[in-house]
Design goal:
Elements (H helix, E strand, L loop, with lengths): L7 E9 L6 H10 L5 E2 L12 E2 L12 H4 L4 H16 L17 E6 L5 H14 L8 H5 L3 H10 L4 E3 L7 H14 L5 E8 L4 H9 L29 E9 H6 L6 E10 L12 H13 L7 E5 L6 H15 L7 E3 L2 H4 L6 H15 L1 E2 L22 E2 L6 E8 L3 E8 L2
Parallel strand pairs: 4-5, 4-6, 9-10, 9-13
Antiparallel strand pairs: 1-7, 1-8, 2-3, 6-7, 8-14, 11-12, 13-14
Length: 420
């Protein structure tokens, strides 16, 4: 098919998160302002400086059949569960080809993970040391591969237009969705299952993040530990789970009579080129990504009424993002209701962009912005309208929302959505 510039829409959503085992329960938790952060139980976490995390509300092993679950890393388990929900929510009843509404050659899968099968790698190394070579699982390599979640989702739905795994640390999930949009726009696919997943709640990653001084050590009050924009914020809380959307060309969705949540306007990309882990303090790179979004779409700042911020609760990162927003949007930022949902879900690293895209889509669909919890004393440098206390209604009419995702290495991804 020749290159096109087709309109892309969201027709399905799925999630499994620290707030719930599906998108409905996750949304309910977000609107209620409920924290998914919990103490970490077990001897292996006892000596860590960080003893809290936003663990999944529903264990994937309780959802997937045991023969399938034992062949998948936890990150892939989450991805398959979220993708199954999104696929059914989009109105598909079987894999491509069996469901005649989509052929395999016109279907893609783009599921990202920032770290991949790290728990499989570390656990199987322990098996090697403690039990010997013969006890190492023959499934280890397919389980630990970073592309395993996308590949397994592709197998689930019979995707043959392409199966891809962009890796850009905490921006990975958002970049996957942006890549999927381009697959549809350029005519390579009609439908793409896209999102992000992560499962890295293991002593080694936690110890490493803690030693970088990136994580909150508020072990005594887990539910209050993730506190974006608060003067007392001291780092992020690690979360796990997956968020997946079904993206579709508008013409394909209309032809099959699909329900449409919203339009995906496009993405803005940039790189900081500043530091491997620290954000550029003025927000220069973030601002560049936002300008790239505005330059490459017909989005007007006056249309934007909601923003799901990256806002991880790190002192420098939260302020840099707001500086960038003010720099690009100017006075239009004053009418943008900003939600920092990591205050409830924790930071899902490569899965964050997927889950926060689901939250952004639902915010537009329900015209309701989730609250940011734990903001007891707003940082005076936060020159923006942060939704606090309770969820806030969004305006009627045609409006737009933005989802920001940034990652170690200076990756910046900004996604925009509009009501239909």
């Amino acid at each position: 098919m020749s290159s096109t510039n087709r309109t892309v829409v969201v027709t399905g959503i799925g999630a499994t998160t620290p707030l719930g085992g599906d998108s409905a329960s996750t949304w309910e938790g977000l609107i209620a302002g409920r924290s998914g952060v919990r103490p970490l139980e077990g001897e292996r976490f006892a000596e860590l400086p960080v003893k809290i995390a936003a663990t999944a509300a529903v264990d994937p092993g309780d959802v997937l059949p045991r023969p399938l679950a034992r062949k998948l890393d936890r990150s892939a388990q989450f991805a398959v569960i979220a993708a199954r929900e999104a696929w059914a929510d989009a109105g598909y009843t079987a894999p491509a080809g069996e469901d005649e509404k989509i052929v395999p050659e016109r279907l893609g899968s783009v599921i990202a993970s920032g770290i991949g099968g790290v728990t499989t790698l570390l656990d199987q190394y322990d098996v090697l040391k403690e039990k010997g070579v013969r006890r190492v699982s023959p499934h280890t390599v397919p389980m630990l591969m970073p592309n395993s979640p996308s590949a397994n989702v592709g197998l689930e739905v019979n995707a043959r237009a392409g199966v891809h795994t962009p890796v850009s640390a905490c921006a990975s999930g958002a970049e996957a969705i942006g890549y999927a949009v381009e697959m549809i726009r350029t005519g390579r696919a009609d439908v793409v299952v896209a999102g992000g997943t992560e499962a890295a709640i293991h002593p080694l990653p936690i110890a490493a993040f803690a030693n970088m001084m990136a994580m909150s050590k508020s072990n005594d009050e887990p539910e209050k530990a993730s506190r974006p924009y608060d003067t007392g914020r001291d780092g992020f809380v690690l979360g796990e789970g997956a968020g997946v959307v079904v993206l579709e060309s508008e013409e394909h969705a209309k032809a099959r009579g699909a329900r449409v949540y919203c339009e995906v306007l496009g993405q803005g990309l940039s790189a900081d080129s500043h530091h491997i882990a620290q954000p550029e303090p003025t927000g220069r790179g973030i601002a560049a990504a936002m300008r790239n979004l505005l330059d490459s779409t017909d989005l007007k700042p006056s249309e934007v009424v909601h923003l799901n911020a990256h806002a991880t609760s790190t002192p420098q990162g939260d302020t840099a993002e707001i500086k960038a927003l003010r720099n690009v949007l100017g006075d239009d930022l004053d009418h943008v209701a900003i939600s920092a949902t990591k205050s409830m879900t924790g930071h899902l690293l490569g899965g964050a962009g997927g889950i926060e895209t689901v939250a952004t889509v639902l915010a537009l669909h329900h015209r309701l912005a989730p609250p940011t919890i734990n903001v007891d004393e707003l940082d005076p440098e936060i020159d923006a309208d942060i939704v606090r206390g309770e969820a806030r209604p969004l305006p009627e009419g045609t409006v737009a929302a933005i989802n920001n995702s940034f990652g170690f290495g200076g990756h910046n991804v900004v996604l925009a959505f509009r009501t239909v």
